[in-house]
């Protein structure tokens, strides 16, 4: 398709005219917004501004770089995201049979009824095989309409028929107001663009529709302005924080929807069971009526039979008056028949009583079912009220976003403080360089010790070979002695048959032979034990030689491996084909690993603070013999980079359940290599040590007051490596004050405004007046940001607490107590290599299997 220069000029003039009209409408709408501060009007104005920026940037970039655009062009992708937000504004929520439905596909389907030419793209969208959701069909419809250059015409038909749109949109929606007409006018300018989009190959159902404000906030003139860049980064941080809160609110709303659906399903089931119970009651009533009618018939028959017997008795009395014997027999027969009839009547009355009691029980069950149904209806009403509260919270978050704009000035002051902190960080970097030089010296000393250890191993191996040769010689001598003893025993048996007189002498000799046999068996056992010991020592020597050959390489690669592991994420099983440390190929046929989603689902189902997953690193690894494994931790909501007590539990399972023969285990994690070893009744973890730096109180004032109220705070520090805030209470408080402190962990998330805190540590100095043990410090830990309200015992928190209290107490060996409801005791030992040993006891209380 060719376009003449005149057409290009005419289209540019048309664009200028469209943007002038759009600017006049936007100015008029902004004046209205200043007069009336309506949140919905503000939303419409913001969406209109974003649409104007998106369309203008798309046209300018298309004219400068080429008219034909494809699906991967970022301005085009942002244009579709903005149009999706404009069409979603003010959309009514429709309740379907199973759940609530809110989609833009409904009004877009209406276009084919108003504009016959739109039937073609609607039919094409319905025929696409990869689209499963109404939102995906709406996205495909927008792309096809842009390729046809009819998007403005189609949407113009919609906004003209506002009486039909009122079925889908609220009265204050963007498509129902003047802003919708302005956006349709702006869309006319897109007719100069040729779009070549492949709708079939895109995953339109699962795309995330988030507007990238960074594409519109920065201009060429503002590149050199530092203040402008700082303001832009602050606004983007606030935008990301609000989006994260909205995602959390959406997840809570979806969970509430799921609970409402489950309650509705259970309500329908109860109604069905109630109908079945009513039918059973009707059947029982009918059977009761039949039994009563049968009982009445039986009573009538018995009465007729009694009357007949009376007549027979009178006849027999007249015939047998003169015979006393005949009278006695007749009397006994009548008496027997009367007893039988009375017994039959008693049985029928008992059955009638049983039926009446069953009827009472069924009526009581009916009342209980009705009561349960009323309770379910009350819970449904409560859930709907919670949904309304969530909507109110969303509005409050929008108002807080406006307040955050006023806080921009305060953040400029914080930037100055951050510059001071950068100077402090440079000083700490110099200290770290000095520590690095010390570590290199320690490395040289370790290499010298390795050479000495090699020489000792060689000497020991030579001495063991000499002992083995001596034992083999002794074994050969014992075998020859055994042959001689067998021949001698055969000769003695022959002599025993021939010479009966020497029985006593032979018995003495046989006793000696049995004792020698026992000694020989003992020697055989010792020989087997020596062989096993020799094999074990040979295997140990081979393992030592292999480890010593790799020791130098591992020492050099440890730092690079730790740096590479930090900040990375676990790959999917399809992508993880080789180990990044040793480049050994993984075998998925010999192991059954869980999917990424299954890790999180299992952790959510367990609903514990953290759930640990141990995995083999190589195909030849064995839980009983290997010493290196992979380890991951998941809370009920997400994966965490470090967890101490879950690592302790993993080591306890390998040592106690799997009977691992190694004295020390190594776990490859997101925090680098962690080691665990057994010492008597404790398991010692080798964890990294993280420092905490002073934190300004004003920046986290609301969070601290939400946690401790009006209690006196003696010190406040923050660990950037673990994103944990350390709050030290006054030394005047005792342990009981920390234990009785009631912290509503759910209120901590909205109270944290900085976005950098993911865990809160409350700590207190130990007291010498304790009754049982003298603990150096106490602590409690809260992490609602990771789905953990209060963690009972936290190893990762003590990697920060150990560094802090070691500086303030002047100790490297400390005893700590975490004062949660369950509680826990830990022994902390700081090492010279910048790491910390945390020791604790483990009790296995439950084992089982998961069935998928």
UniProtKB/TrEMBL annotation:
Gene3D superfamilies in the record: 1.20.5.170, 1.20.58.900, Diaminopimelate Epimerase, Chain A, domain 1 (3.10.310.10)
Entries under InterPro entries matching the protein: Phenazine_PhzF-like, RUFY1-3, Run_dom, Run_dom_sf, RUN_RUFY2
Coiled coil residues, start to end: 253-294, 324-568
One Gene Ontology cellular component: cytoplasm
Domain of life: Eukaryota
All residue ranges annotated as the RUN domain in the record: 70-202
Xref: CDD domains: RUN_RUFY2
Transmembrane residue ranges: none
SMART domains cross-referenced by the UniProt entry: RUN
Record carries keyword Transferase: no
GO MF terms, alphabetically ordered: catalytic activity; SH3 domain binding
SUPFAM superfamilies documented for this protein: Diaminopimelate epimerase-like (SSF54506), RUN domain-like (SSF140741)
Keyword annotations from UniProtKB, A to Z: Coiled coil
Cited NCBIfam families: PhzF_family
Protein name: RUN and FYVE domain containing 2
Organism: Crocodylus porosus (Saltwater crocodile)
Gene: RUFY2
């Amino acid at each position: 398709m060719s376009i003449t220069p005149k057409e290009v000029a005419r289209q540019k003039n048309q664009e200028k005219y469209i943007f002038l009209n759009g600017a006049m409408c936007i100015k008029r709408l902004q004046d209205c917004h200043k007069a009336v501060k309506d949140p919905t009007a503000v939303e419409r104005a913001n969406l209109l501004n974003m649409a104007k920026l998106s369309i203008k940037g798309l046209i300018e970039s298309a004219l400068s770089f080429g008219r034909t655009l494809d699906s991967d062009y970022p301005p085009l992708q942002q244009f579709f995201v903005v149009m999706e937000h404009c069409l979603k504004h003010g959309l009514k929520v429709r309740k379907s049979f199973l759940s609530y439905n809110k989609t833009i596909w409904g009004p877009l389907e209406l276009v084919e009824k108003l504009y016959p030419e739109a039937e073609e793209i609607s039919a094409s969208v319905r025929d696409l095989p990869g689209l499963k959701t109404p939102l995906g069909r709406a996205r495909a419809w927008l792309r096809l309409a842009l390729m046809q250059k009819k998007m403005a015409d189609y949407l113009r038909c919609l906004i003209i028929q506002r009486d039909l749109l009122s079925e889908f949109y609220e009265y204050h929606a963007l498509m129902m107001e003047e802003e919708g007409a302005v956006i349709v006018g702006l869309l006319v300018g897109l007719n100069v663009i040729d779009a070549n989009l492949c709708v079939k190959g895109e995953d339109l159902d699962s795309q995330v529709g988030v507007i990238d404000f960074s594409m519109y906030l920065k201009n060429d003139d503002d590149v050199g302005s530092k203040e402008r860049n700082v303001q832009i980064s602050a606004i983007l941080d606030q935008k990301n924080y609000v989006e994260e809160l909205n995602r959390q609110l959406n997840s809570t709303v979806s969970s509430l929807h799921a609970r409402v659906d489950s309650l509705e399903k259970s309500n329908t089931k109860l109604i069905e069971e109630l109908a079945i119970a009513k039918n059973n009651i009707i059947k029982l009533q009918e059977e009761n009526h039949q039994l009563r009618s049968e009982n009445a018939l039986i009573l009538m028959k018995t009465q007729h039979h009694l009357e007949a017997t009376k007549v027979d008795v009178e006849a027999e009395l007249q015939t047998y008056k003169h015979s006393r014997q005949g009278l006695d027999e007749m009397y006994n027969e009548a008496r027997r028949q009367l007893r039988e009839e009375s017994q039959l009547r008693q049985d029928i009355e008992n059955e009638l009583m049983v039926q009446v009691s069953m009827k009472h029980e069924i009526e009581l069950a009916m009342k209980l079912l009705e009561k349960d149904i009323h309770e379910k209806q009350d819970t449904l009403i409560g859930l709907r009220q919670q949904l309304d509260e969530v909507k109110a919270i969303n509005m409050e978050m929008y108002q807080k976003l406006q307040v955050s704009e006023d806080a921009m000035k305060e953040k400029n002051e914080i930037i100055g403080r951050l510059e001071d902190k950068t100077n402090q960080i440079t000083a700490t970097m110099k200290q770290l360089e000095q520590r690095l030089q010390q570590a290199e010296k320690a490395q040289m000393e370790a290499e010298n010790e390795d050479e000495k250890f090699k020489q000792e191993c060689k000497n020991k191996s030579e001495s063991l070979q000499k002992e083995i040769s001596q034992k083999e010689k002794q074994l050969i001598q014992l075998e020859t002695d055994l042959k001689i003893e067998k021949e001698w025993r055969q000769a003695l048996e022959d002599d025993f048959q021939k010479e009966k007189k020497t029985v006593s002498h032979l018995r003495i000799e046989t006793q000696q032979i049995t004792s020698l046999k026992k000694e020989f068996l003992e020697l055989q056992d010792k020989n087997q034990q020596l062989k096993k010991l020799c094999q074990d020592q040979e295997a140990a020597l081979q393992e030592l030689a292999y480890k010593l050959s790799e020791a130098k390489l591992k020492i050099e690669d440890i730092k690079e491996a730790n740096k590479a592991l930090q900040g990375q994420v676990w790959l999917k099983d399809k992508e993880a084909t080789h180990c990044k440390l040793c480049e050994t190929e993984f075998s998925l046929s010999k192991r059954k690993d869980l999917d990424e989603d299954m890790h999180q689902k299992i952790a959510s189902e367990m609903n514990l603070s953290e759930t640990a997953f141990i995995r083999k690193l190589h195909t030849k690894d064995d839980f009983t013999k290997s010493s290196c494994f992979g380890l991951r931790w998941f809370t009920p909501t997400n994966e965490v980079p470090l967890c101490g007590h879950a690592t302790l539990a993993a080591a306890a399972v390998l040592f106690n359940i799997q009977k691992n023969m190694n004295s020390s285990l190594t776990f490859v994690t997101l925090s680098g290599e962690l080691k665990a070893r057994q010492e008597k009744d404790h398991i010692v973890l080798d964890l990294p040590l993280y420092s905490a730096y002073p934190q300004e109180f004003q920046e986290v004032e609301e969070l601290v007051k939400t946690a401790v109220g009006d209690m006196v705070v003696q010190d406040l520090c923050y660990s950037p490596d673990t994103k944990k805030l350390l709050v030290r209470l006054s030394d005047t408080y005792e342990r009981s004050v920390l234990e009785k402190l009631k912290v509503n962990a759910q209120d901590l998330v909205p109270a944290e405004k900085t976005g950098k805190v993911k865990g809160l540590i409350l700590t207190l100095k130990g007291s010498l007046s304790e009754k049982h043990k003298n603990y150096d410090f106490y602590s409690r830990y809260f992490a609602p940001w990771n789905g953990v309200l209060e963690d009972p015992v936290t190893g990762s928190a003590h990697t920060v607490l150990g560094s802090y209290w070691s500086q303030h107490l002047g100790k490297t060996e400390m005893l700590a107590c975490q004062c949660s409801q369950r509680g826990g005791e830990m022994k902390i030992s700081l090492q010279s290599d910048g790491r910390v040993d945390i020791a604790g006891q483990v009790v296995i209380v439950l084992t089982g299997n998961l069935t998928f």
